[in-house]
Design a protein that fits this description.
single chain; globular; six-stranded mixed sheet; 25% helix; Glucose Oxidase, domain 1; serine-type peptidase activity; 8 helices; hydrolase; 13 strands; carboxypeptidase
């Protein structure tokens, strides 16, 4: 179990993917400092190489330095975009495995969540600093605070017509659908058997969603789940000849042959309400006619 943060602890903000300026981080820095934390900005902040936060070597060095620095108690990825898969295989997790710390982010950071999950260490899928201060994100930020500081969190979501009732228990894993699809067959690929998988995505063509679901199903990622949580599928796109199904309908089609509980419209993903989830933590999902509940449970 990773130790909860304490006032006075040092956290680092780095970018493993798209570039970002220090000015964009002001709301997040102020928030972290209001929580009593010391904030250290990595070398990737204000760095620029085309769309990236510096060249691969710099992003790798920055992330590696913060992983190895024993005074840094958590690493928060500044933003997503694209770029983490370019460096993940070069990261040395030796010292991190000896002294684990929280790593936070979502979207492209799904790469890090999945890779670290294979080390048997938990991470936090949550709102990132680039989004702090935006309208509607206060509750998302608060769930991150509670998670970092070890406060208990139980979540619920409203009923949805596509929900499939039932109860599931298992490790919570997942993240961005496109990234999970990309990681298949790599060192960062995760085993989903007996686990509760959560999915979200942004700005994808509907036929891409279908293609990725077909691939995940063919590769065995959907058949033996304990349960499935479907988050936001934001800003979906279509062609001039419509695909004919929504993202939720596509997911329902490809998971309909299985019997595990499924909940839809869970607040996780690229929307203002993006609840912090602990990847790798044992959880209980209960889906009923009244909606869905998600809570963490202690392993016996």
């Amino acid at each position: 179990m990773i130790p909860a943060l304490q006032p006075g602890d040092k956290i680092a903000i780095v970018s493993t993917a798209r570039k970002i300026t220090a000015q964009e981080l002001v709301p997040a820095i102020q928030t972290f400092e209001n929580w009593g934390l010391q904030v250290v900005l990595g070398q990737t902040i204000d760095a620029s190489y085309n769309q990236f936060a510096g060249e691969d070597a710099l992003r790798l060095q920055d992330f590696q330095q913060m992983l190895d620095d024993e005074t840094v108690k958590a690493i928060v990825c500044a933003r997503g975009g694209y770029g983490t898969t370019r460096i993940i295989d070069q990261v040395d997790f030796t010292k991190f495995r000896q002294r684990p710390k929280w790593v936070v982010g979502f979207s492209d950071v799904t790469t890090i969540h999945s890779h670290i999950h294979n080390l048997g260490i938990e991470t936090i899928h949550a709102i990132m600093p680039v989004l702090f201060g935006r309208e509607g994100t206060i509750d998302s930020v608060e769930t991150l605070r509670k998670t970092l500081f070890g406060e208990n969190l139980n979540y619920s979501s409203a009923p949805h017509p596509f929900n499939r009732t039932g109860t599931a228990q298992g490790q919570l894993v997942g993240g961005n659908l496109s990234m999970l699809h990309t990681l298949t067959g790599t060192k960062s690929d995760i085993n989903t058997e007996g686990k509760i998988l959560f999915l979200e995505d942004l700005d994808e063509y509907l036929y891409h969603i279908d293609r990725m679901l077909v691939h995940l199903d063919r590769s065995g990622k959907l058949s033996n789940l304990a349960g499935l949580i479907v988050g936001d599928m934001s800003d979906m796109k279509d062609n001039s000849i419509p695909f004919g199904k929504t993202a939720y309908e596509i997911i329902a089609e490809h998971t309909g042959k299985y019997n595990y509980p499924v909940c839809y419209n869970f607040p996780v993903g690229h929307e203002p309400l993006n609840l912090a989830l602990i990847c790798g933590r044992n959880a209980m999902l209960n889906v009923s006619d009244l909606g869905a509940k998600l809570e963490y449970v202690l392993c016996k």
